[in-house]
Amino acid sequence: MPSSTSTSAWRPRPGRAVTVLDAGDAWYDPPPEGTARVQAVFSRAAYLRIGDRLLAVCGPRVPAGPLHLRLSRLPALAPGFPVRLAAWRPGPHQRWNPPAVDLGACEWLDLPGVPALTRSAGLDPALVAAARPLVERGDVVALADLVGGCGPGLTPSGDDLLAGVLLVAALRDSAPAAARAEAALAPRTTDVARAFLHWAARGRSIAPVHHLLAALAQRDQEAAALALRALAGVGATSGAALALGVRLAL
Known about the structure:
By secondary structure, the protein is of the alpha+beta class. It has two domains: 20-94, no CATH class; 114-249, no CATH class. Helix content is 38%, strand content 12%. The protein has a six-stranded mixed β-sheet, with helices on one face. Helix 4 (157-172) packs parallel to helix 6 and helix 5 runs antiparallel to helix 6 (191-200). The protein is globular. The model is unreliable at 1-10 (pLDDT under 50).
């Protein structure tokens, strides 16, 4: 495997085809060109840096999302690896779009597992209580100052909560776009969290969140309970914190 100082960019090996399953908006607006460098590698995903953009390359078990290029299998990569993005250029038909949802009259339903969300998110209940009035008055910038960077996780759970609130605010247009963008940039946090906040402020998150919102909008309690369970299982704390943010926002 090439070291971080290698000048030979990664390319698919003959006979070991890797096919694109779907890709999120970050791979289209505009399409990244040239050579990216691997910033971090995990068991199911690798994060690539190209200029000021962060992209994710994932295996098939990772849900679709705005940063994600999902592949039939995750190739062997290492931090510092240069990657020619032309090897994985997705076509227009592979663009992932979440279901369109009308959140105008959408409300949270009485779902099993809700009382455990704060505990599962790894957040101090007092912090969540302090966040509630900020969410109620739509002050997403003050919310970002309060919860940004708090809690455990590659994406700190406070940022995941903020992402859930920003997502609902974007889909409802209940906070100005400029305020959402400011809130996404406010926290002192990880590059990965900042990238997901950027897209949440524009109405995009990982697929399980959108499935939950679609079920809530249809007032389908059974589907919403299944979607919440799936979302809460994402990461150690991320899915639960996202769900908590959505709940507060609704």
